[in-house]
Design a protein that fits this description.
The protein is of the alpha+beta class and about 190 residues long. It has helices spanning about 15-30, 30-35, 45-50, 160-165, 165-170, 175-185; strands spanning about 55-65, 65-75, 80-85, 110, 120-125, 130-140, 145-150. It folds into two domains: about 15-150, S-adenosyl-L-methionine-dependent methyltransferases, CATH 2.20.130; about 155-190, no CATH class. The chain is built from six helices and seven strands, in the order H-H-H-E-E-E-E-E-E-E-H-H-H. The strands form two sheets. It has a four-stranded antiparallel beta sheet. The protein is elongated and about 55 Å long. InterPro entries: TAT_signal.
């Protein structure tokens, strides 16, 4: 059996603290408006699934305005991990969810472990401005279902062009000059 790398390798302290804070907020409040509109008691969590060898998702890498996630299925079943980008329900997502009442089926990643004794792994890079969330509510076993698990996305201006035509607002700057200063010097004057 191949040992998967430690998901904490290469993650900055700032990213770790931010993800921990996001997870705590998501746990206390529910994530996004979709969570409050649905009725389903998720029997597991992503962390529990990982600890028990059931389907889970983990952060591989976070880049500017994107995250790379690893979807792992070590079971002899099919798992469909749905993802939500920046809390938005895509217009194309109109099929009612068969498990989560009041929700729709989101885009996702299918990981088929049937007939393969080793864990099956799929890796996807998803672009977002702030947040990518993943849930498992479609697949071989309801006991493995977990609710939206958040992965924070940092999105910063990299070029002067990113700051033009109102682009500075996208990155949380008060004006174009602050954005240009950040691109040129790395000095960040945005409020925390």
């Amino acid at each position: 059996m191949t040992r998967l790398p430690d998901p904490m390798d290469g993650i900055s302290r700032r990213r770790l603290l931010r993800n921990t804070a996001l997870l705590g907020t998501a746990t206390m409040l529910g994530v996004g408006t979709a969570a409050s509109q649905t009725s389903y008691s998720f029997p597991s969590t992503n962390a529990n699934n990982r600890a028990n060898g059931f389907p889970y998702v983990e952060l591989v890498e976070d880049g500017n305005c994107e995250v790379t996630l690893r979807f792992v299925n070590g079971t002899n079943s099919l798992a469909y991990f749905e993802y939500r980008i920046d809390g938005v329900t895509p217009a194309a997502a109109t099929s009612p969810h068969p498990v989560v009442t009041g929700s729709v089926i989101y885009p996702g990643v299918s990981v088929d472990g049937r007939g393969d004794p080793a864990p099956v792994v799929a890796t996807e890079t998803l672009a977002a401005a702030e947040l990518v969330e993943v849930r498992l509510a479609l697949g071989g076993e309801r006991d493995w279902d977990f609710d939206w698990t958040p992965f924070a996305v940092d999105c910063d201006a990299e070029t002067k062009a990113d700051c033009k035509n109102g682009g500075w607002e996208t990155f949380g700057f008060r004006n174009q000059g602050q954005c240009l200063r950040y691109v040129n010097t790395g000095k960040d004057s945005r409020p925390e």
